[in-house]
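Lecture notes, continued. The same structure-token format from the folding unit now serves as the input rather than the output. Read the line below as a description of shape only.
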């Protein structure tokens, strides 16, 4: 999002990197080390400020919170990240499938039966 975008629009954008690592960790009730670890596991990739500091969006914080819940229940961090990634992939596949079915049915065809 360009810097000349009004502040109110940036604050509404789930992908705007509004949170510093310290603030993100505080909001999640975790440590900066946890955020670094899920970054290393490629669950989320924070944007960097001009000074090189990690910045997180609200969307990334929701993803991190899902991983933290799994870790808090005893799941190793690498496994928790993989589970969250697979959940997101499944959700996306289901969304695409639903769009396909809706488009196909709207055109008068019958969509393949789902399992």
């Amino acid at each position: 999002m360009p810097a000349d975008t009004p502040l109110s629009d940036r604050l509404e954008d789930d992908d705007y990197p509004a949170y510093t690592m310290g603030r993100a960790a505080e909001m999640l009730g975790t440590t900066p080390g946890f955020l670094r670890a899920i970054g290393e596991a490629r669950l989320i990739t924070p944007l960097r400020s001009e000074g090189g500091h990690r910045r997180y969006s609200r969307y990334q914080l929701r993803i991190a919170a899902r991983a933290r819940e799994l870790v808090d229940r005893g799941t190793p961090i690498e496994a928790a990240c993989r589970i969250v990634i697979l959940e997101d992939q499944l959700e996306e596949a289901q969304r695409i499938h639903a769009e396909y079915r809706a488009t196909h049915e709207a055109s008068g065809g019958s969509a393949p039966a789902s399992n």
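Point for the exam: The beta strands are 19-20, 47-48, 54-56.
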